User: What shape does this take?
Amino acid sequence: MTKTFKTRFDVCVTLDECSGYVPLDCPVCELTMRDANDANAYRTHMCCAECKMMWAEPNSEAWQAGWRPEGEQLNNYKIKLRQQPTYLLI
Assistant: This one.
């Protein structure tokens, strides 16, 4: 089975769902996938780990039916994510 989608740069991509492909950017928040947690979340929920916790798990039935966040709610979430540091100091 194949899947076709358009990236934020208006590039059409067709994928074989059996390929194990994980995109560089989350299709929901459009931020870069960071690690194995994001890759695993993408394989199960088609989004990064942050979006999985924020959107997919609390709305699991709607998510499986194809619902995705949009509009001002999603934009505010993206702003919040972009304000977080991308590294940790220990």
